[in-house]
Design a protein that fits this description.
single chain; alpha+beta; 13 strands
Length: 309
């Protein structure tokens, strides 16, 4: 855990234009990673992603044919081992059943997605788990159907004839983590950067025919709001110092010390936990950076598409 003086220094660095990040990445740059797909031979789809900080996750996808007795919201079952329930809930809400799961009015495919976080997360794990799940779903194949549409489903045993779960026009979402510090917008923040964030958003994006679309936005409570308040050197001595004058003692002027504290906060010399929500103008800037042509969303999707099995 960073001390108040370290938090103040880091926030001052990230508030610069351009921001100076601890690992020297620019504001839109993501952490280096290693990714591979089709790593589990018995699964319909699988993937492994490892970030440069050593955080690693594996996702396996299995598909089963079931009778349709419930709504399509139950056609995907997500199980995550190794992280908090709030992360599981956010990831589960972003996954919508693709059209290929529907067989007919009586039958459908049901997906079982197992996510395993292999190492203790050194940062907020949602981007890692979302990216790994995205790659695993792109790798997922379903047996080719040989029966007619209205008949009970029969399938080809030849795995080489299997068809992709997602077609060229339909892709699973990817969730990006974005934080703000002062007037700066920073993508893929690490653990230390989140400790000084004003606001944090989890933005899920999908590629559509006319560009990138935002499928979900969720605020994440930044850990910076739980950090202790810093105390300037002037206040640490003057607020508690007692001055002896004969038999009486007088406390140093507390109001003067408080004024010193406010001045040092404004200068960034003292850490103060952020308060308040995200302004609408800042939110519109973030959405534009994610969805515009050649923006962050397209960069991420193009990078994922380049991953070879």
């Amino acid at each position: 855990m960073l001390s108040p003086s370290e938090l103040a220094f880091l926030r001052t660095s990230l508030s610069q234009s351009p921001p100076i990040r601890p690992d020297l990445r620019h504001a839109r740059q993501f952490r280096p990673l290693v990714a591979e797909s089709a790593i589990l031979p018995t699964a319909n789809g699988s993937a492994r992603v490892c970030f440069s900080d050593g955080t690693e996750a594996i996702v396996g996808v299995k598909a089963e044919v079931q009778k349709t007795a419930q709504s399509s919201s139950s056609w995907i079952e997500l199980s995550i081992d190794g992280c908090d329930q709030d992360v599981s809930a956010i990831l589960a809400e972003t996954l919508q059943p693709p059209a290929s799961l529907y067989l007919n009015e009586r039958w459908h495919w049901r997906l079982f997605i197992d996510v395993l976080l292999l190492s203790q997360p050194l940062s907020y794990p949602l981007p890692l788990l979302s990216l790994t799940t995205h790659i695993a779903l792109l790798d997922t194949r379903l047996p080719r159907r040989t029966s007619d549409q209205e008949d009970d489903p029969l399938f080809d045993d030849d795995w080489d004839a299997a068809v992709p779960l997602y077609n060229a026009k339909e892709k699973p979402p990817v969730t990006l983590l974005v934080m703000t510090v002062a007037d700066n917008i920073i993508f893929d923040p690490n653990k230390d950067e989140l400790a000084v964030a004003d606001n944090v958003l989890a933005i899920s994006v999908v590629r559509a025919d006319d560009g990138m679309k935002v499928s979900a936005i969720r605020t994440v409570d930044p850990p910076s709001r739980m950090t202790p308040l810093g105390i300037p050197q002037t206040a640490s001595t003057s607020q508690t110092q007692a001055v002896a004058e004969g038999e009486q003692q007088k406390m140093v002027d507390i109001q003067g010390a408080n004024r010193d504290l406010e001045v040092e906060k404004e200068k960034g010399a003292v850490w103060s936990p952020p308060r308040g929500g995200l302004k609408r103008q800042m939110l519109m800037r973030i959405l534009k950076m994610v969805t515009e042509k050649g923006g962050v969303g397209e960069e991420v999707m193009d990078g994922v598409a380049a991953i070879d099995s």
